Amino acid sequence: MTDKRPLLGAEKQYHYKVVIVGDSFTGKSSLLSRLSDKEFERAYAPTIGVDYKVHQLRNVQGKNVRLSLWDNAGDRKFNSIVTNYFRGAEGVLLVYDVTNPASFANLKTWLAEIDSKIVPGSATVCVVGNKIDAPRRAVSRDDARSWAFERGFQYMECSALNGTNVEECFVSVATTLLNHALEREEAEEEEKLRRAAAQRKSTTFAAFFQRQREHAGEEAVGAVDGSTGRCGLSSYFCFLPRWH
Ligand SMILES: Nc1nc2c(ncn2[C@@H]2O[C@H](COP(=O)(O)OP(=O)(O)OP(=O)(O)O)[C@@H](O)[C@H]2O)c(=O)[nH]1
Ligand SMILES: [Mg+2]
């Protein structure tokens, strides 16, 4: 993750790489157009290799989140190119078409591709069932949701055609990533405070002992009893030679 340090006076920017994967024709590029441009295109224009967009989400838990979105071709002939872009992904949208069971079954293969490029379990994954506006649903919501939850993934359904839940899919992944970052920041802050307190304590002790030593020295020199040579320290005695 790249938590960009703020410029002076600027609000902190959280920046994550998210890849969008799944079979051809599931609507990955359409989700991206809907999110970024509020547009939907009925004509199918397959993605060649990989497309890239940056999208700014404002006010995710009060923070600004910038997503680098990598829209990958579903066509297997681009696999050798596409899978290289999975590296470093912090978020994954695993997209299937709710009217196409094969696209759901193939999520396993996409997941294996992802796991071969990034540490399994290191990314926040959201399974996205697209085209819920279409009349003939062929994958049960419960089955898909169970599949996702069993693997610890999020689950969302949406329609790029009418916009239902599209932004929510991205916000859902961004929120989880952001929460992890905020937890880390909080832990770092606590650690910093703990260290500062420990430092203050040891400085106070050191200063106290230093003062004691100085005080003891002053008394030793300033309060020598002329007859005995005993110096007037409260906590201990020292015997000095009498001077005649
Ligand atoms: N009814 C309906 N059609 C959709 C929806 N989303 C996308 N489509 C249509 O599905 C087709 C494929 O959409 P794309 O977004 O190009 O699919 P893709 O997953 O990017 O495909 P590749 O780039 O080949 O991997 C297009 O004709 C879209 O208009 C949706 O939510 N509902
Ligand atoms: Mg596409």
TrEMBL record:
SMART domains: RAB, RAN, RAS, RHO
A Pfam match: Ras
Gene3D superfamilies linked to this entry: P-loop containing nucleotide triphosphate hydrolases (3.40.50.300)
InterPro entries with a match to the protein in the record: P-loop_NTPase, Rab_GTPases_membrane_traffic, Small_GTP-bd, Small_GTPase
GO terms for MF: GTP binding; GTPase activity
PANTHER family cross-referenced by the UniProt entry: DRAB11-RELATED
Family of this protein: Belongs to the small GTPase superfamily. Rab family.
Protein name: Ras subfamily protein
Species of the source: Acanthamoeba castellanii (strain ATCC 30010 / Neff)
